[in-house]
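Ticket reopened. Same input as before:
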Amino acid sequence: MKRRTLLKGALAAAAVSPLLRNFSVAADPNRPKRVVFFFTPNGTVKSQWFPNLAAGQETLTEASFGQILQPLIAHRDKLIITGSTLEQGLIWNPDNGIDRHGINIDTDMQSGHTTATILTGTFPTPDTRGGSTEQYINGGPSLDQVIADQIGTTTRFRSLELGVKLQDNPHRGLNRMSFRQANQPGGVPPEDDPLRAFSTVFAGVGSSESPEQMAARIRRRSLLDFGRSELASYRNQLGTADRSRLDQHENAIRELEQTLTGPLTCSPPSMERSDYVDVQSILPAHFEIIARSFACDLTRVASVMVGGGLSKIRYPWLGSTSEHHELSHMEGEEGSRNHLVQINRWYAQCFADFLTDLSNTPDGQGTLMDNTLVVWVNENSNGNGHTRQNIPILMAGSADGYFRTGRYVRLPGNGRPHNDLLLSIAQAMGLSATTFGDPAHCTGPIAELR
Amino acid sequence: MFSGRTTFIFIALPCVLLCGCQAYLDSGPPGPGQAPGGGGGPNTSCGPTEREPIHRLTRSQLQNSVSDVFGVTSLDVNMLPQSAAAAGFELAGPMSRLEVSTWLGLAETVGAAAALSASYAGCSGQACLNTLLSEHAPRLYRRPLEAAETQRITAFYEAAVTRSPATALSETIAALLMTPQFLFHDSFVASDGQSGQIRDFELLSRLSYFLWNGPPDQALLSQVAQLSTPEGLRAVAASMMADPRFERGVHEFFGQLLHLSVLDLIDRGSDPAFTPQHAQDLRRSLEAFIRYAVIEEDSLDLLLGSNRVYLNARLGSLYGHPEVTSDNFVPVEFPAAERVGLLTQPALMALFARRDQTDPIHRGLFVLRQMLCVEFGPPPAVVGLPAPPTPGVTTRERFEMHRANPACASCHDRIDPIGFAFENFDLLGRYRTEDSGRPVDASATVLAPEDLIGAVANASELATRIRTSETASTCMATQWLRYAVRREPLESDQCHADTSADAFRASSGSFRQLLLSIVEGELFQLAGASS
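Engineering reply: fixed in the latest deploy. New output:
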C-alpha cells in the first residue's frame, strides 16, 4: 500500500520527509480497540474552535466549522465535539474554598492550568502536612494509564507516551499528564525524540535480526536482569514504604525487558532518517509512529503531549515570533489572536492527517480508524483567563460503534462534570468501571454521546 | 539527537477572586522544650517527624558519581527526564520504563568509557575484575561489598566473558550502574529493622551527597567509624567543607534555590545587546558571587549585603564598567545606594524579567518565597494581565491594576510592592532611573513578613533591611534544611529549622556552622519509618 506523504494541507510549509515509506501489513482478523490522547496547551480561541450551529442543531456541517477546525472538515462524520461538558463539577467547585495553608484544593496547578488533572480527574492529594505550593502531587492515575492496565498487557508496549518539545517548568505539575498511580509527581515521562521513539518501538520488528542486533538485545537483557536480581535481594532489607517505591522501579525494568523479546512477524517499515529538531516535523512524526505501532499491534494506548501546561513553544513558520503562552494572553489583540488561530489550526491539520492515516490503514475487515478513539484535550478553554469551563474536547472515531459521531454535542442544563467524559471514554474502551477520577465529581457516563 | 528541553519559570498570575490572601510565614512558633543544637546528640524534642521513603540519585548526582568514581565526564544526564521536587528541591524517585531504558543506554556508554580509563590500563581478565571489586564497586555502592554481592558480580562477569570477552569489563561496570545499591540512597536499614539512627555508611553517603553533591571517596569511606560520635561527625563534616568539592555542593543548592538552570535559556531578544553568551556569563557571575560570599567569606551578611558584582569584559560593557578587560571574572564594587547583596545581582534581576519588560510580580514572589519563606496560595481564578509595554506608562503603573481591584489586592499588596522596589533594574538587571520615559518610582510599603513591615525608598534599602532580618536568616536555614531532607515539610520541621537558624545567627551567619548544625540534627540522622 502506498503511503501518502505528510502534511498535504494548506499549512504544510517546508517539505518534511516522511518517516516511513512503502509500509505493508497483512490483514489481521483481530480488531482490538485503541485509544490516543492528544494534549495541546494554553487554551484556544473559542470563537474559532467551537462549531457555529444554531441551538438544537448538532450535525456537523461543512459550514459550521470555524477556522481552527477547518482542516477536519473531511473527517466530520467521525467527530464528536463536546460543548458544555466541562461547565461544572471537578474542575472548579466554588464550595471548596481554600484550606488553612492557602492551597486551594480545587486547583490542578497554579493559575488554573489543568495539565495534571485533565486525564486524572482528581484533585491534588491534599497536603495536610503543610504547604509547599510548588510541589504538585496528583490525586490518582490518568485515564490512559488505567486503560493501559486493562488492554496493554499483551502488547509489546503497554503504552506509548510521546511528547513535542517537552518542558522542564520548575512548577512540575505543568509538565506531565500521565500518571500510573496517585502521588507520582514525576508522572510517566514522554519520549520527545521521534527517532529514539521509532528505534525503541520498532526495534527487532522484522522477520530476522542481525547478529549484532541480537547480541545487543541479549546484552541489554542481561544488564536489566542483574539490576532486577539485585533489587530482589536489596528490597528485603527495607521497610514497607521503601519497598513499594522500589517495586515501581522493578515494574519499569520488567516492562522494559518485556519489550526486548525476539523479533515480531510484522513486516517492518523502512525508515527514512531525518533530523527532528523543529516542532513542525516532530508532531507529524509522532502521529506516524503511533499509527504504525497500532498497525503492527505493538501497542494499543498512546498519547502525544505538546509542550506541557503553559507551553512556550514558538511556531515561526506560521508567521509569529512570539511564544505560545505569551500569545495566549494577548488574545484581545487582533494580530496575536490570528497567530493563536493559526497555531491551533496547525494542530488540527496534524490531527486531520493522523485521522487520514488511520483511515487508510487496513485493519481486519475495515481500517484502523474503525476501532481507534482519538481524544484531543486542552488544558484550558480560554487561554487568557485560564478558564476550565467548557474546555474544548474533540473525539474522533466511534470506538467501533460505541459513540455516535458526526455531532456537536451540547449537553443540557449546566453540562456534565469532566469525569463523566473520562468515564464514558473508559467504558468505550471496554473497561467495566462505573466511576472515574474523584468519585464525588463523577455522576455517570454521558448517554448523549451514544 | 536529543532535543533540548527548555525551562520556564513564569506564570501569568490572575488574582484571587473570592477569598482573602492566605499568605503565611513558614516559621511557626517554636516547639516546646526546644534545645539548642550541637552538644550531646540530635535534638529529639521537636515532636513527631518522618522521612520520605528511599529516593534515587538526581541527575546531577548521577553525573558527579560517574565522574568522581571513573573520571568519565561525557555523561549527558539531560537525556533523562526532569525529576520531581519536594519543597522546591529536586527529588528523584523510582524510574519509569523510559528512564530505565535511557539510563541503560547511558550506563553502557559509561561502562565502555570507564573500561578504557587509566585504572584498567593493561589489566586483563581476573585482574580487571579485581580492580573493579576492590576500587570502584565499593565507591559506587558507597560501602564495602557483602560477600554475596561480590559473588554475584563475579558470576555476571564470567557469564559476560563467555558471551563477549572484549566487552565483559564494560558490561560489568554498566551492570553495577543498574543496581539499586548505586541508584538509590537514603535507604533506612537499621539493624533491628525499626526506625532509628541511620547506619553509618548510609549517613556517610547522605553527608557526601549533601555537602559535595557527589559520592564519598576512599578517604571518606575509611573515616566512617568517626560518624558514631558527635565530635567525629563534626570533624568529618568540617573537613568535607574544606574540600574543593564543597563548592560543587554549594552551587547545587543555590542553583536549585534560585532556579539558575533557567538563566542559560532566557530570551531578552528585545534587547540586541543581550546574547546567549551574556546569559551564560551572568550565571557564572552569580556563581562567582556565591563562591565569594559563601565559600571564601562564609558570611550570610556578605551574601545579602555585599556591594560587589563579578564581571568579565563582556558583562563589564553591559553593566557600565568598560574598564574591565579580562575574560576572567573580577569583583567590581557598585554604589551601596544601587546594589546590595544577592537580590540585586544582575543575574537575578535579569532572571525575573520577561522578554521585553521587567517582572515585578515574580521578583516580589522570589524574594518572599525563596528568601523569606513566605508562602502564597495559588490564585485559582480568572483575570487578565496588565497591558503590554506602552510608551509613557511605567511598568509599575501598568501593574497597579492588581491593587485597584480589592479581590486582587489582598495578595498583591504583599507581593507587588517588593517587586516594584526593584524597578531600578531593567529586564537585563541594569540600573535605571527611567522607565518608558518616566521616572522610576521604587518606593514600597512592605506588609509581610512582620520584621520587614514598613516603607522603603528602593531595593537598596529593602535589601539592607532584609540583610539583618531574622526572617531572612531563618529562611536560609530552613531552605538548607529542606534541601538536606528532601521531602514535603512537616509542621515539626520548623522547630528543627529554628534550632539551626539560631546556630546560624550565633555564629554570625556562618554557612559552615549552619550546615554543621543541620547534619548534627535529628532530621538529618533519622532513619525512615519501617511501616
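The longest helix of chain A spans residues 334-360. Chain A has nine helices and eleven strands. Please confirm and we'll close it.
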